[in-house]
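step=encode ok
step=design start
structure_in=
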């Protein structure tokens, strides 16, 4: 099954938003239960798990494994059971009624249940101009918007694996990709760093902070400050932000689900939210331990609860009627 486009029908039993360990485990369990399953994430391999070089406490792996390798193994398992994967950004939801709607840059998808697995990487504050120019040069999805910048200069703001991956993707289209990072360089595997240094269209700007996005009707530049306080404006047409925070990623919900006082999605013991048929797993909900294994456990519980919700069988979730 393709990882970039869903099947012919846009109707699913389960749509999962977020491709970390919680979302991917939910895809495994849902697809194995013979539910038509779609997982949507803005990157090919999502979640903060991919930034982890060594995981040494995941059951069944006696030797350390990278987060990327472990997540890829989970994804392959889900695909073997028939789960579909779509690289796109979710921009809105309609969670009322029997069929829920998930709106992406690539279209709208209907589902009888939805699992939110977007994690906790949202920032408290944004760069001046970031919201103003969203969709007019500012983006959070290179796969979605990269082709629009063919032959132009763009900037990637971030220092993690996701930023490096997206910069390499953008280099297929852009004449120059500026990576702006507040640290001295990027973090990632040696292989990934070799790809970055070997790509002549990519230029890394270390120890720089973005002060604001510059433009009029569209983005025309990125104002950056050095450690010594000197300021320069990079002449770019696109600014792709991959800066991680620690807040639950819930802004796209726009009030559709009940949150607690810290912004986490409220769930019951089956991971069901305030909206019947909608579940939340992993770091987007409040938990006492934030680990790959606990996110995976959440995903398994939510998928089986979704299956019982759809079939109307009692025992695990409250009746939808």
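sequence_out=
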């Amino acid at each position: 099954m393709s990882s970039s486009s869903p099947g012919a029908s846009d109707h699913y039993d389960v749509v999962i938003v977020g491709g970390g360990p919680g979302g991917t485990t939910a895809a495994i369990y849902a697809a194995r239960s013979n539910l038509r399953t779609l997982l949507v994430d803005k990157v090919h391999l999502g979640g903060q798990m991919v930034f982890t070089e060594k995981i040494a406490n995941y059951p069944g792996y006696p030797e350390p494994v990278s987060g990327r390798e472990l997540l890829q193994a989970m994804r392959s398992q889900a695909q073997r059971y028939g789960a579909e994967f779509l690289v796109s950004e979710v921009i809105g939801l309609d969670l009322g009624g029997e069929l829920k709607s998930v709106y992406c840059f690539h279209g709208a998808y209907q589902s009888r249940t939805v699992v939110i697995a977007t994690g906790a990487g949202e920032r408290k504050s944004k760069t001046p101009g970031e919201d103003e120019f969203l969709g007019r040069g500012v983006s959070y999805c290179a796969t979605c918007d990269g082709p629009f910048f063919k032959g132009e200069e763009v900037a990637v703001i971030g220092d993690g694996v996701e930023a490096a991956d997206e910069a390499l993707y953008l280099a297929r289209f852009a004449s120059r990709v500026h990576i702006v990072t507040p640290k001295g360089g990027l973090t990632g595997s040696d292989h990934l760093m070799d790809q970055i240094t070997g790509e002549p269209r990519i230029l890394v700007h270390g120890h720089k902070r973005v002060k604001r996005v510059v433009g009029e009707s569209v983005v025309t530049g990125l104002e950056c400050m050095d450690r010594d306080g000197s300021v320069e404006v990079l002449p770019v047409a696109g600014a792709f932000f991959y800066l991680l925070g620690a807040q639950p990623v819930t802004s796209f919900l726009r009030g559709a689900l009940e949150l607690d006082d810290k912004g986490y999605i409220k769930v019951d013991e089956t991971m069901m939210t305030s909206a019947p048929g909608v579940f939340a797993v992993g770091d987007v909900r409040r938990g006492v331990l934030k680990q790959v294994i606990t996110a995976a456990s959440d995903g398994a519980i939510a998928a089986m609860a979704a299956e019982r919700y759809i079939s109307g069988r009692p025992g695990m979730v409250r009746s939808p009627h």
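step=design ok
step=annotate ok -> Residues 317-321 have pLDDT under 50 and may be disordered.
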